[in-house]
Amino acid sequence: MFFAALQNIEEFSFEKIIHHKRILHFAPEEMVSSKIRDRASLYVTADFLRADCDFQLDMSNMPDIKDETFDVVIAFDVLEHVPNYQSALEETHRILSAKGFGIFTVPQKDNLSKTFEDPNMISPDDRKVHFGQGDHLRIFGDDFAMAVERKGFTVVSVNESMFPEILIRKHVLFPPLLSNIPLATNFRKVFFCQKIS
Known about the structure:
- By secondary structure, the chain is α/β, with parallel strands linked by helices.
- It has one domain: Vaccinia Virus protein VP39 (Rossmann fold, 3-Layer(aba) Sandwich).
- It is built from 7 helices and 9 strands; from the N terminus they run H-H-E-H-E-E-E-H-E-E-H-E-H-E-H-E.
């Protein structure tokens, strides 16, 4: 969905979001990196654990990164692993330039209105049952966009409804068969979050 947006939604085009931008990419996926690295003016990667990234960073506490260092921060399916995702959003806001973008995806349980987290769930088995994966610390609900907005962003939730049917089918932007797994995210979104203050 990210690349479909870059290629088909004018306000989120490669030219406006990626070209000549300073980009920090958390938990980088090679497929994504390979398509944006050479278009950026600066492209660096980060992860809390991985040694193959440029920086080992806790997304919720980045004191070594100065204010307004980056134009874009990308974190796909990262915030569910961060103990304090609210602080991660605040830090993202701080290190972004004026009008910069945080671009996020998160696992969201279908039809869950409020994000569910419980710090007492520490075993991987409990977390898998309640959050969908043994290393997840929460399952996000429909309130995610509002949580980001409260941190000083405008948020556009890009989903399959923003594309023509031919693109939806070609790029499988919506599952042809919905999963019946209770914690499935059948209705995936990419959140384009622009810093406003």
